[in-house]
Amino acid sequence: MVRQIALSLACVCLCSRLLAADFGDITATFVLDGTAPAPKKLDTAKEPLCVKEGEAMYDERLTVNKENGGVKDVVVYLFLKPGEKAPEAHPDQKKQAETPVELDNAGCRFVPRIALVMTNQQLVVKNSDKFGHNTNLSLIDNPAQNPNLPSGGKVEFKFAKSEKVPIPVACNIHPWMGGYVVVKDHPFMAVSDANGKLTIKNVPTGSRTFQLWHGSFISEGKQNGKAVKWERGRVTLDVKAGTNDLGEIKIPVKHFQSK
């Protein structure tokens, strides 16, 4: 009996090691190469309740950390050719699909500005403001959605198909509001935080192609000081077990000026 328990434990340990060896994490830090333009002040007079008296809202399409130059809201996701099947996900990521993703209308902003959702994962769109909004999702491969949301309202969606590119989200009542929803049939995607950092967890090892995006495909920059170009914003990596750090990726300021 003791021998059987020992063998079972040995098998569990071996399987755990094999599982860990089949996945790697991808990390990167995106920074601005150049001087960030001054953020544009938004005209919110149409909805006085958006901001407190004496305060203002600014365009968040380019948000740069003043301390380290980090660029927020850079999206990186696994690129798949038409008809190509996504690799098997890690067990932890399969559970992730059971957790709803929230997209809130809060303070006349979409929160988060970039929402990542998998096919057949529930997207909960809600309105935390004291006035009404609509949330217009300009979907391409899924039926378009544009629900009206009264204060405190919410609506739930599930998407049957992956979207090829990030999908714009807008509020037609408050036209300065903007964001994106990224819909993929896999969990291998991430968005950079306020410091420009992102991590894609548990990517299956092997040759993988990833898409770099911030408002449009990022086709050039500097990686760890070296000038690089990526055709249509795609970079192919040999993913190994453990951490795969892409280092610092500088995005030229002209990428954002062209939008």
Structural class of the helix and strand makeup? Answer: mainly beta
Total count of helical runs of at least 4 residues: 3
Query: DSSP strand (E) fraction?
Result: 35-45%
The 3D shape can be described as: globular
Output the helix-strand order.
HEEHEEEEEEEEEEEEEEEEEH
Superfamily (CATH H level) name of the largest domain: Immunoglobulins
Show unreliable segments.
Answer: 5-18
Mean pLDDT: 91
CATH architecture of the largest domain: Sandwich
Number of strands: 19
Main β-sheet: number of strands, strand sense, barrel status?
5 strands, mixed
Instruction: Give the class-level CATH name of the largest domain.
Output: Mainly Beta
Radius of gyration: 21 Å
Number of discrete domains: 2
Could you explain the architecture of this structure?
The protein is mostly beta strands. It has two domains: 1-94 and 187-259, Immunoglobulins (Immunoglobulin-like, Sandwich); 98-177, Immunoglobulin-like (Sandwich). Helices cover 12% and strands 38% of the residues. It has three helices and 19 strands. It has helices at residues 2-21, 91-96, 254-257, and strands at residues 23-33, 75-78, 101-106, 109-111, 114-118, 123-127, 133-134, 136-137, 148-149, 154-157, 167-170, 178-184, 189-191, 197-204, 206-213, 220-223, 226-229, 234-239, 242-252. It is globular.
